[in-house]
Amino acid sequence: MSTINTKIEAKAHVYGDHIDTDRIIPGKYTKTLDLSTLANHVLEDLDPNFNKIVQQGDILVAGINFGCGSSREQAPLALKQSGVSVVIAEDFARIFFRNAINIGLPVLEIGKHNIQKGAELSIDLKNGKVTDLSANKTYAATKLPDIMIAILKEGGLVNYLKKNGTYTL
Amino acid sequence: MGQTISEKIISNHVGNKVYAGELVISDVDGCMASDTTGPLTIKAFKAMGGKKVFNPEKCALIIDHAAPSPNERIANLHKMMRDFAKEQGMRLFEIGEGICHQVMVENQYVKPGDIFVGADSHTPTYGALNAFACGVGSTDLAAVMMTGKIWLKVPQTIKVHCSGKLQDGVTAKDLILFLVGKITVSGATYQAIEFCGEAFEGLSLASRMTIANMSSEMGAKTGIVHPKGLELDYDFSGITPDDDAEYIKTFDFDVSDLEPQVSAPESPDNVHNISNYEGTKINYAFIGTCCNGRLEDFNIAAKILKGKKIHPDVRMVIAPASQSVLLDAISNGSMTTLIEAGASLITSGCGPCVGTHQGVPADGEVVISAANRNFRGRMGNPKSNIFLGAPSTVAASAIEGKIVNPKKYLI
Fold first, then answer.
1. Which residues contact B9 (CB under 8 A, 6 or more apart)?
2. Quick one: closest CA in A to B139, which residue?
3. pLDDT at residue A1 in the model
């Protein structure tokens, strides 16, 4: 039984290229296990209003190299805790990409796009499709390796390993 | 078909020949987490049903990112790490023992040909040792600690060949900043980098660590320096690529005319010849980190600052990468020279580089730092600006209160 919604319809918050993990959650807030502290400061050096306007289920959209920099898993955790249901980008930095899947935050790489701030998006995670309802345009996401789909289906790596004990390709 | 260094190391671990693009589950030779990633690792380890780490000799925890603890919240996270290490019979490197990457190399947790996984993005530093080392987040690391394995995609490799010898007064940091500027912060995403050629062959282990360290600033999964010229305290056989190995891209640079480089705010790949920024007023100079906190870095800074004082409008912070580096710098006199010149010595660790404590810049201030990142807010204040340069550039700039080419102090 999947713990991730495979169909998502929500509003897009759109940012640019190279959003590093210091911008997603500054280093000074990372030393905590309290997820609400992380969510209170999410993206604050990029957009101090984000935390006030983000609604449960909203979609974060970015350009290239999203999540570059530190290996801090607090970055996807902060986004997830703030209500973000999925992150879409042209492409991702590799550690962020793995971390997001590992904590059960879906991430989709769709290459060059023209999604505008406030656009209504419909996401079909199962088939890797992103539809911009505001612009009536559909983007195909890069297919995830099977092991990542399996991890995501369990809601993250903790549940995956709890169930399976080890990895299978 | 020929293999790259990464393909060879991974093949040796999985028991059959593998090539770029293949997914593998590989044994891991060592792993570690810091106090930024360790507490979440422990939480995930327990949540996934972990009872005992796969091998306590091959797992380590390091308290370096906020050491000593600046507040009670972090003090309690440190306690959680100490308790876990004791319970598991694994080593915990205490406050001041050093930065994770430095102590892993000094204590031989990683050796040539190994696969090492660290919960810190600068784990590729061990590519200096000709190892395949990559950074992961906390949950991935918890899984490694539990299973002794990791799943990975064998990466494509970018070959970076540099011919020519660096001029006197130009260092490995200048070389890697130059390369980050050329390859860009996303130029090697998901890929491995192999560094080879004359410019790397004469480099010390410390300088090779500076090079491999900043592979992560190009998005690379790992960055491995060709073993030619590598000298270690123990016997080893280096892994070299086959002549017919396949590379996704090859860069070829002649670096014999390279001048000192700086990375300007606010991205590590915003790299320029130092002459473009000479004269920029600075308030704060910092030498330390996993990138440039080693003995040779303090030695060159001491050579420049010997008998001089830092500028009255500048403060200077120095953080040795480990206690061992600190003791060596005390023995050879470099530390005394730097402190007499006006530098402030802080505990070995990540300190100001991660913006948690020990030297946050004020609004509008300009920092010249020997670290590896200058993202907005990196040092704890989004209203400050960070320039990255070699330790020599930091030391010379500290004397003059502005960014200067250190060459005149060295030749």
1. B113, B114, B115, B131, B132, B239
2. A102
3. 39
Per-residue pLDDT tens digits for B42-51: 999 999 999 9
Closest CA to B373 of B395, B355, B400, B356: B355
Those of residues 52-71 in B touching chain A at CB distance below 8 A are: 65-66
Query: Taking 50 as the threshold, does the pLDDT of residue B255 lie above it?
Result: yes
The answer on pLDDT for A5 being more than 90 is: no
**CATH architecture type of domain A7-164:** Alpha-Beta Barrel (3.20)
Residues 6+ apart with CB under 8 A from B312: B401
- Indicate whether B296 and B317 sit together in one domain: yes
Q: Inter-chain contact A94–B376, Cβ cutoff 8 Å? A: no
B151 CB neighbours in chain A (<8 A) are: 147, 167, 169
* Mean pLDDT, residues B99-128: 98
- Domain end call among B258, B283, B304: B258
Q: Tell me whether residues A157 and B190 touch, CB distance under 8 A.
A: no
- The boundaries of the domain holding residue B324 are 261-405
ipTM (interface predicted TM): 0.95
Q: What mean pLDDT comes out for the span B389-411?
A: 97
pTM: 0.96
CB contact under 8 A, A65 and B121: no
Q: How many domains does chain B have?
A: 2
Distance, CA of B385 to CA of B376 (rounded, Å) = 7
A contact test, residue of B123, B147, B151, B193 with most A CBs within 10 A: B151
CA B387 to chain centroid, in Å, comes to 17
As a whole-number percent, the residues of chain A with pLDDT over 90 amount to 92
Q: In CATH, what number is assigned to the domain containing residue B336?
A: 3.30.499.10
In terms of domains, do B139 and B1 share one? yes
Q: Does B39 touch chain A (CB under 8 A)?
A: yes
Kindly identify which residue of chain A lies nearest to residue B27, measuring between CA atoms.
A167
Give me the DSSP letters along A18-48: --BHHHHS-GGG-S-S-HHHHHHTTTTTT-T
